[in-house]
Write a structure and sequence with these properties.
The complex is a heterodimer. Chain A is of the alpha/beta class. Chain A has nine helices and seven strands; from the N terminus they run αβαββαβαβααβαβαα. Chain B is globular. Classes of the chains: A alpha/beta, B alpha+beta. Chain B: GO terms for molecular function: GDP-dissociation inhibitor activity.
């Protein structure tokens, strides 16, 4: 906990720290969790089990010397049958990654349905990225490709989405995907959920370490 | 859908209100098989935060004035906790709905939109998030310590509740004002508007409250514990009318008749909450709709723990099961079995009064109400304004001699776009309360700003169930009905007692008192430096 305030403070007054909520959506087995695993931990596991319910994790990236972006990532289960979880993840989300599998054309249809739902239900200014995953499979065997790059890209342009073809296995374009999202986020806006709680005016930190400093120090903590 | 009926659930939780969602959080590491349902297509039940579109639909569904017609086939004495639901169940002609889309606790809802709302600044419907239960949370509340110990607080952004104001008339010349209530000794010292003699009286009272529980002070008030606080303030502390009003306002009581005992307890809570998590505030409010946001965090924790979530799924009691389990019927005709059923009470208590609320979107930030109260204090996002009994014109004449409270939320709460604010007004329900609330809102806007329009206004009345949980058994299975949300303006820790009881029922002999709501961070959620994948 002590490290929380550390790095930002060390970089002087001009540092910007912004925190954003990101949600991953897409059909089962397209590789949502694998993309997150690559991004957060730089690992890959071919035999990953399906996500149950959802998983939450965080990753911080530095855009430049002075700008740090922290993603709160909500990875949802593609298998979720009752369509009841996604609304609580995309509520107040700043950005979304909608994933499909470039070797399964039906998964792009599902991705399009998610994009539609996001555009209908989520924040009006949500930033959506479309990620065609499993690029490694078609690099090895080009005939496995079921969704031509141009087709997905045309759709992404038309719908106003960021677009990348990724491989969680080889790491191709994974970092690029998240960096592109970070760059598109409204970093200069002092607004909802953008800055770290406890460091901006208005936020109250309940955390054990910093939040109770005034307590531990007694009535006069000077 | 097949798998839903294939297994016997350890528990089925009906409704995603705050209490049920806190239970979901409490059970999120238990490995129990949990099915969590809500009849609505949004989270939060009675404590939801709604977009304007959702608010319109919600108001339409709760426009009815007669709350009892939906309860016709309920047994009359549902307050009796010993009744066996199974035997009553046989008498039902139609299956009782455990969790339906239209709550029986809300009524007379209607929406009024400014005739030129969009031109005056009303944004798109999802830019708003109007809280049905905008309770503030005192920093002393066990809710906060449980959110910290369960690590759920990491997903909530807490904002400071700042000034408490009292609306009143100064004199004929200067008209009406909003006077900030001094709530600490430093505050009293620096308040220039209070005459020296009154200051001494107020100081004496504040000192008394801080230590109200001491043997010495108990001697003073215990004999008068059930008398009205206002009389005690006059007789014992010689507080003038203005200071009385300020003091009573801090109790946040809606009937204007707080007793000495309850008053001292709540003012003590107020004073001792100041500074607990930082200077200048005594309470917090979760961003994005208050307790609604905490409910969602609880449900997310449940989902991460493997619980199954289904929205838009009303539930009713099914045929009795021979294996001693509870059988439930979902709206999609699927039958499910469980050993425990947790729901929230839908029957209005006939003894407790209901409240009237107005939620209004204002096209002004009402900046003057969100002053920073101490050096280094966070900018408050919520201000409280009390209209004491009789302070509004016509109020006393119309026979409604009760106070009105307003919570003013800045756009920092995420409930409206910047440049606007949301005002939540509450008073005890009476036939004239729509009119009184309108008057209070107008008075507030006139006192706080020069120009402001009401862009959108939602009125409704809210009742409450019995304050005790109802526990009934059906064979070897248990039905536990949590009390509905309290109508208080601040979160009531009593709710947590019922949540813990429900938790014990689900956990059975695995329930260890000390383990309740105490979790380690899940991997990947803790420090920035060791983010690892779960």
């Amino acid at each position: 906990m002590a490290s929380r305030a550390g790095p930002a403070a060390g970089r002087g007054m001009n540092t910007r720290f912004a925190q954003f909520k990101l949600v991953l959506l897409g059909e089962s087995a397209v590789g949502k969790s694998s993309i997150v695993l690559r991004f957060v931990k730089d690992q890959f596991d071919s035999y990953r089990e399906s996500t149950i319910g959802a998983a939450f994790l965080t990753q911080t990236i530095s855009l430049d010397e002075n700008t740090t972006v922290k993603f709160e990532i909500w990875d949802t289960a593609g298998q979720e049958r009752y369509k009841s979880l996604a609304p609580m993840y995309y509520r107040n989300a700043n950005c979304a990654v909608v994933v499909y599998d470039i070797t399964q054309s039906s998964s792009l249809d599902k991705a399009k349905a998610w994009v539609k739902e996001l555009q209908r239900q989520a924040n009006e200014n949500i930033i959506i990225a479309l990620a065609g995953n499993k690029l490694d499979l078609v690099s090895e065997q080009p005939d496995k490709r079921a969704v031509p790059t141009a087709e997905a890209e045309a759709y992404a342009n038309e719908a106003g989405l960021l677009f990348f073809e990724t491989s969680a296995k080889t790491a191709e374009n994974v970092q690029e995907l998240f960096t592109a999202i970070a760059k598109k986020l409204p970093l200069d806006q002092v607004g909802p959920r953008h800055t770290r709680p406890g460091q901006r005016p208005g936020g109250v930190n309940l955390g054990p370490a910093e939040g109770r400093d005034t307590q531990a120090g007694g009535p006069c903590s000077c | 859908m097949e798998t839903l009926s294939a297994e016997t659930w350890d528990t089925v939780i009906c409704g995603t209100g705050l209490s049920q969602s806190l239970l979901a959080l409490a059970l999120s590491r238990s490995k129990k098989r949990i099915l969590h349902l809500d009849a609505n297509d949004f989270y939060g039940e009675h404590e939801a935060a709604l977009s304007l579109q959702e608010a319109d639909a919600w108001a339409h569904a709760h426009a009815g004035g007669d709350v009892t017609h939906q309860l016709d086939n309920k047994p009359a004495s549902t307050n009796n906790g010993n009744e066996d639901i199974a035997s009553d169940g046989d008498k039902f002609l139609t299956a009782p709905v455990l969790s339906g889309k239209e709550s029986t606790l809300f009524r007379n809802a209607h929406v009024r939109k400014h005739h030129n709302a969009e031109a005056q600044g009303l944004s798109f419907p999802r830019a708003y998030s109007l809280a049905l239960a905008p309770q503030i949370i005192y920093t002393q509340s066990k809710l906060l310590s449980q959110l910290v110990s369960s690590k759920a607080y990491r997903q909530v952004e807490f904002l400071a509740v700042g000034s408490f104001f009292v609306y009143g008339t100064t004199d004929a010349a200067s008209g009406t004002i909003l006077a900030r209530i001094p709530s600490s000794r430093e505050d009293v010292f620096s308040a220039q508007s209070i005459p020296a003699r009154s200051k001494r009286a107020l100081m004496k009272f504040l000192k008394f409250v801080i230590d109200y529980d001491s043997d010495e002070h108990k001697l003073v008030w215990q004999a008068r514990a059930d008398e009205p606080l206002s009389e005690f303030l006059i007789e014992h502390f010689k507080l003038d009318e203005r200071l009385q009003n300020s003091t009573l306002a801090l109790t946040l009581t809606l009937d204007g008749k707080v007793t000495v005992k309850d008053g001292l307890v709540t003012i003590h809570r107020h004073l001792t909450s100041i500074g607990l998590f930082g200077s200048g505030f005594c309470a917090v409010y979760p961003k994005w709709g208050g307790t609604s946001e905490i409910a969602q965090v609880g449900c997310r924790a449940g989902a991460v723990g493997g619980s199954t979530y289904m929205l838009d799924t009303p539930v009713s009691m099914g045929e009795a099961d021979h294996g001693g389990n509870i059988s439930l019927k979902l709206s999609n005709e699927v039958s499910i079995r469980t050993t425990t059923l947790i729901s929230s009470q839908q029957t209005c208590s006939t003894t407790s009064p209901s409240i009237s609320r107005v939620v209004a979107v204002i096209n002004s930030p009402l900046q003057s109400l969100f002053e920073i109260l101490a050096e280094g204090a966070p900018t408050p996002a919520v201000a409280v304004v009390a209209f004491p009994s009789g302070s509004l014109p016509n109020n006393s004449q119309s026979g409604s001699d009760v106070p009105v409270y307003a919570f003013v939320h800045s756009s920092e709460t995420g409930e409206c776009p910047s440049g606007q604010s949301v005002v939540y007004l509450t008073m005890q329900a009476a036939p004239q309360s729509p009119h009184v609330l309108d008057m209070a809102l107008t008075a507030l806007l006139q006192a706080a700003t020069t120009t402001a329009d009401i862009l959108y206004k939602l009125y409704y009345e809210q009742a409450t169930s019995s304050r005790q949980p109802l526990v009934t058994s059906q064979g070897s299975a248990t039905v536990f009905e949590l009390p509905s949300p309290s109508l208080g303006l601040a979160f009531d820790d009593e709710n947590l007692v019922a949540v813990k009881e429900a938790w014990k029922i689900v956990m059975k002999d695995e329930a260890l008192d000390d383990a309740f709501m105490k979790f380690e961070d899940r991997e990947g959620m803790g420090d920035d430096d060791d983010d690892v994948y779960d």
